[in-house]
């Protein structure tokens, strides 16, 4: 049901931003809409999601109306802090957003459009389980203003899907992509590597199956074992092996080679696209520290330097909003040191990298050694940018530690 919420200051019942905080009307603004419903819980998943048996008082068929109450609240909060801005990106995540009827997703998007407006050329993404996407669904989403479908393929190999507790039919990935294309939507495919029992040949098969569908964008994430998940318990009991770091490194290099050879450029450690136009602008907003409001239970937001987050359970979320209160559970204003650390952590992950001038003194002293170790690009460093080599991408955490210690 998701990891624990961070500690922070209490959120006021009206959701107002702290005194003196003003919104920059010229800063980009993104919207995240969390749909916390899943048919089954995948063994590796640590997201704030709920199956029907876990809802305890929350109703899936009322969710769109509940979330739109938070949209109304955000309109008041942001208006009081200096004005509203059109959303340049909207992202429906989860959970499985496409478990809701397309009409509910359309109403949520209409609520965002009515409250903030959508910028010209706004990117509007919906995450989808392949089993939930038909031609009719794809056309309804496109008619509502969705521009991009992010399909959770994860693997093309049945025994790997089984190890991840993924229940979709692998053949439906092809069907979902075809439906999205017919509706005029951009397509992203999500993959996970390093599952128990997955070989390098299995991973190659999944990559080849993914690129054969010619998506516009591919995300490939190493499996991480999160405490409290079913998979973590299975590994602790010795029922399945833990991920092998060396094998995962080989899998990453294979993905980078195969994707580059078939026309995809890396632009973030785990993301590749067919040119700049098909990058995920919404996720880039996170990595570059832009403003966004996250709607829904457990969703996190960042506005004008303030971070805040909602209560986790859908029932508690609905109850707060029904009583006219903010669903916020807490907030914080990171100090300059925390913001600098976060900037290094996030911007070193993207292709454009980090400006050397943003490093603190000790971090600058580490640059020469990182170049010598083959972890950052020497030519880019001479031009004042910290850009990871492929080896650096594999050891990104070590690079961050060197630049911030």
UniProtKB/TrEMBL annotation:
GO molecular function: 4 iron, 4 sulfur cluster binding; coproporphyrinogen oxidase activity; metal ion binding
Broad class of the protein's primary localization: cytoplasm
Assigned keywords, A-Z: 4Fe-4S, Chaperone, Cytoplasm, Heme, Iron, Iron-sulfur, Metal-binding, S-adenosyl-L-methionine
Protein's cellular compartments: Cytoplasm
Source superkingdom: Bacteria
GO cellular component terms given for this protein: cytoplasm
A Pfam family that the UniProt record links to this protein: Radical_SAM
UniProt domain Radical SAM core: residue ranges: 23-265
Keyword ATP-binding: no
Spans through the membrane: none
Record-level GO BP terms: porphyrin-containing compound biosynthetic process
UniProt xrefs under InterPro entries: Aldolase_TIM, Coproporphyrinogen-III_oxidase, Elp3/MiaA/NifB-like_rSAM, HemW-like, rSAM, rSAM_sf
Main function: Probably acts as a heme chaperone, transferring heme to an unknown acceptor. Binds one molecule of heme per monomer, possibly covalently. Binds 1 [4Fe-4S] cluster. The cluster is coordinated with 3 cysteines and an exchangeable S-adenosyl-L-methionine.
Homology family: Belongs to the anaerobic coproporphyrinogen-III oxidase family. HemW subfamily.
Protein name (database record): Heme chaperone HemW
């Amino acid at each position: 049901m998701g990891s624990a919420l961070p500690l922070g200051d209490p959120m006021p019942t009206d959701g107002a931003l702290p005194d003196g905080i003003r919104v920059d009307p010229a800063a980009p603004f993104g919207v995240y809409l969390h749909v916390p419903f899943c048919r089954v819980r995948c063994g590796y998943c640590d997201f704030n999601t709920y199956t029907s048996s876990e809802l305890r008082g929350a109703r899936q068929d009322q969710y769109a109306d509940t979330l739109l109450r938070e949209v109304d609240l955000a309109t008041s909060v942001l208006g009081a802090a200096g004005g509203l801005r059109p959303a340049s990106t909207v992202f429906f995540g989860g959970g499985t957003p496409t478990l809701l009827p397309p009409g509910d997703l359309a109403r949520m998007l209409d609520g965002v459009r009515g409250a903030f407006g959508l910028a010209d050329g706004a990117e509007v993404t919906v995450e989808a389980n392949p089993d939930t996407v038909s031609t009719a669904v794809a056309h309804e989403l496109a008619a509502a203003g969705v521009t991009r479908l992010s399909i959770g393929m994860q693997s093309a190999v049945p025994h790997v899907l089984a190890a991840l507790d993924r229940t979709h039919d692998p053949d439906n990935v092809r069907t979902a992509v075809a439906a999205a294309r017919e509706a005029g939507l951009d397509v992203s495919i999500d993959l996970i590597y390093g599952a128990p029992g997955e070989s390098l040949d299995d991973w190659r098969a999944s990559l080849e199956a993914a690129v054969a569908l010619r998506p516009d964008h591919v995300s490939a994430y190493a499996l991480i074992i999160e405490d409290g998940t079913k998979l973590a318990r299975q590994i602790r009991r010795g029922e399945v092996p833990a991920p092998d770091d060396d094998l995962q490194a080989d899998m990453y290099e294979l993905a980078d080679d195969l994707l580059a050879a078939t026309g995809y450029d890396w632009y973030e450690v785990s993301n590749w696209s067919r040119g700049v136009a098909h990058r995920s602008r919404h996720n880039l907003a996170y990595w570059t520290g832009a403003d966004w409001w996250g709607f829904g239970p457990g969703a996190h937001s960042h506005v004008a330097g303030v971070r805040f987050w909602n209560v986790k359970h859908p029932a508690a979320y609905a109850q707060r909003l029904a009583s006219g209160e903010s669903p916020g559970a807490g907030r914080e204003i990171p100090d300059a040191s925390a913001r600098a650390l976060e900037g290094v952590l996030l911007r070193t992950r993207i292709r454009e990298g980090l400006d050397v001038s943003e490093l603190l003194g000790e971090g600058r002293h580490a640059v020469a050694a990182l170049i010598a170790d083959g972890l950052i690009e020497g030519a880019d460093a001479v031009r004042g940018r910290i850009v990871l080599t492929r080896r650096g991408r594999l050891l990104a955490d070590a690079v961050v530690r060197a630049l911030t210690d």
